[in-house]
Design goal:
The protein is mainly alpha-helical and 266 residues long. The chain folds into 3 domains: 152 residues; 56 residues, no CATH class; 36 residues. Helices cover 73% and strands 4% of the residues. Strands 1-2 form a two-stranded antiparallel ribbon. Helix 4 runs antiparallel to helix 5 and helix 6 packs across helix 8. The longest helix is centred in the C-terminal third of the chain and has 48 residues. The radius of gyration is 25 Å and the shape is elongated. The N and C termini lie far apart (83 Å).
Length: 266
């Protein structure tokens, strides 16, 4: 079966499709902002601020896909071609577009957790047992922000070996090295930004993965994974215990109210 992502028509239609989808999603985001600003009841204004934060992060994702990076799939590399203004106008590599994507998706996850956290805290606030300004809630939001942004910050300087892709090709596929040597020497996905040479980009992408495996040993990856899992388990455990305590208090208040009502009737 032929690789459709190598057809010239693919590289003409897909960028236009990305820009069109970006325009439509930004119009929908503008409508969402209008409704949250002017059509939200006063009782929901506080929660609307968190929803606006979520919508703003989603808009950043749409902006990256529709204008900044405009990644186009080049099988088997997802987003192998960078047709956005950060690559075509400002001369950055595809690594910049990937980094922006990492931050944008992380901000969406952070904003979504903040929305759920607000709804969770609002139960205790209604019962008069909790406050949004409590130090533990501020600490939780700070921890969530740090946990989700650490991988994005690491992504900025994760790959710096410019000759990693060609070196990998020379070692594994020596017959193809002259072809890669004449192409853009920027390894990884960035080799496809300004000169979309498909075969060279795919081989350099393999070199990118090869160098990542060398830079991050198995022990370091396992240590990082264990640390993240421990933190996630602690956060989940905190919410489970706190939810159980809050629900128990709520049930106790309801039972006391019912008993007082029965005593009044009697």
């Amino acid at each position: 079966m032929p690789n459709l992502s190598l057809h010239p028509l693919w590289h003409t239609v897909m960028p236009a499709y990305q820009h069109f989808v970006g325009i439509v999603t930004h119009l929908l985001s503008a409508l969402a902002f209008y409704l949250m600003l002017y059509k939200t009841p006063n009782s929901g204004k506080a929660f609307a601020k968190y929803l606006m934060l979520l919508q703003a992060s989603i808009t950043l994702v749409d902006l990256n896909f529709g204008l900044l990076a405009s990644p186009v799939a080049l099988f088997p590399v997802p987003g192998g071609l960078c047709n956005g203004i950060i690559c075509t106008w400002f001369g950055f590599t595809g690594h910049a577009g990937i980094t922006v994507m990492f931050f944008a998706v992380a901000f969406v996850a952070i904003a979504l957790i903040y929305c759920f956290h607000y709804r969770f805290v609002s139960i205790g606030h209604i019962l008069g047992q909790d406050s949004f300004e409590a130090p533990r809630h501020s600490a939780f939001r700070a921890i969530i922000f740090v946990v989700y942004t650490i991988p994005c910050v690491l992504q900025i300087g994760l790959y710096r070996n410019i000759d990693g892709g060609p070196l990998f090709v020379k070692t594994v596929r020596n017959t193809m090295f002259p072809f890669v040597e004449l192409s853009d020497r920027k390894s990884g996905l960035s080799s496809l930004c300004l000169r979309p040479n498909s075969l060279s980009g795919i081989l350099n992408y393999c070199g990118f993965l090869y160098d990542i495996c060398k830079l991050l040993s198995t022990k370091r990856m396992m240590l990082l994974f264990v640390q993240i899992m421990i933190l996630a388990i602690l956060i989940v455990f905190y919410f489970v215990v706190y939810s159980f305590i809050s629900l128990s208090r709520q049930v106790s208040l309801e039972l006391n109210s019912m008993l007082e009502f029965v005593q009044i009737i009697q």
